[in-house]
Amino acid sequence: MNASLTSRLVALSGLLIVGLAVLHASVPETPQVNRVPFAQLPAAIGQWQLAGNLAIEDESLKVLKADDYINRLYVRGSSAVALFIAYYATQRQGDTMHSPMNCLPASGWQPMTTDRIRIPTADGAAVNANRVVIQKGLDKELVLYWYQSHGRTIASEYSSKAYLVLDSLRQHRSDAALVRLVTPLGSTQAGADRAATDFVRSLQPVLGRHIPD
Q1: Between 22 and 126, whose confidence is greater?
Q2: Is the pTM of this model over 0.85?
Q3: What are the residues whose beta carbons fall under 8 Å from the beta carbon of 4, sequence distance 6 or more?
């Protein structure tokens, strides 16, 4: 890494730290936003049907510190997608969203490949997401995840935090959500890609009621 790039990254990190430090003073305790709880997320999303709720351990919930969350399994034929969304009404210094990649090694999963994709949706917008293939033993799964706030879908954790600082100063809002999908890789990676992206296209028009613009 050259010296110029290193200097820019250090400067960006410094700005994010300073910005996060002022969140406590700049964001109201209870931002006035209207949203529908995740419990009212439809049982049918496009051609996908709810197959059940997935449990989360109490210790994980304590670490999560989300104001609202959902963890569900949706199926379509032989395909299955585990949907997890965590919503934060406010974020404070030291109490912000973190990448799902942080907890994978602790649960035995190892990332094998990582890249970013743009998934076009029916309204013309694209979902910007991280695409990760993970493995534990012989099992492989495909993970798509992104950060969503105020009409944006963001793949980069650093960009998410930068928008957090800007929005808290300009709009006095720090609400945001983490959206994650997991589907078995199966016999072909292409099949998992098709299932996951189809679910994203079906899900995105629904999320506006639950993750406010």
Answers
A1: 126
A2: no
A3: none
